[in-house]
Fold:
Amino acid sequence: MPKFSLSDVDVDDVYQTNGDCDSDAGCTITVPAIEAYNGGLAGVTDQPTIVFVFPPKTYTWPQDTEKRVRWVGLNLQAASSYTLKVFKSGVEMPALTKTNIGMKEISATVSLPADSAAAGPGYTIQMCVSTGNCWESDSFAVVPKIENVEEPKRKVQIVSGDAEKLKQSPEAYAVYAAGFTTNAAMTLGVETHRIEVTDIAAVTTGRRAQTGMQVTYLVHADDTGKDTRSNADLVVKADTVEVAILSGMSSFTTAAQTSDATVGALAGDDYQDVAAAAAIKEECDAGRCQITSISGDFSDSSPRVLSTSVSVILLISSLTVLLSLVAA
Structure:
């Protein structure tokens, strides 16, 4: 919603009515301050909006530390590119601007160098689209670089769902990644800035109609210094709460307000089927699945190609052939 504040004014100046609101016929109520907002109201199904996944509210960003700004763009079909801008107390920092970000992308790397981004509060990220609309993140603070930070720990989870639908819809991919981030963070009891989804892959097995997805995410150290639990310990905990994460996925994707029908499908049982995910994981653990990343189109990082189980099978097959030739 657009933000505005009013003080020392009569309530009649805030909104206007047309008709008798106490009658059976009712009345219409208009709010001039909102009528003046020509970008549409975020949260209405067909209105364009950008929701920031990172940075979160009250975050502290260490200087000279690369982070990945992540967002969900909804109903932005008319736009052709994003521009990312960094602001300090409302003043743009042009040296940190990134232009011509593709509309399929859902993240971009940003570093705040100490020589230009002084420590202190009042920083925001602004995402603009080529149509002229802009959206701003919550305010965050910049802090001095943190030394000797624990390296992120990688976690992989097999989940149910149709990766092909996510591949065809940038909105659906972004919504799912954002939903998984929040879901995993809440289930693990950490802030969302400690969870970063880095890859979503399609998983197929030899069994007919048995398909699912593999989500890869990183557990980061807490930049705020409030949570001292290690990344390694949290990954161990994550292994024990996979069912809880999967079974609650629809709760974290239904809030997306968009006209994209594929996003609506994410709330279905297909994307939180614990039994289906367990069956697929069993096949993968036995080396009978193929894993193919779909994330290349949605990130400015290098495309990730995963086919772990198949690669192992091919390697074994190649060694068998080689040994046969040597024996002959």
Observations:
- Residues 246 and 272 are 5 Å apart (CA to CA).
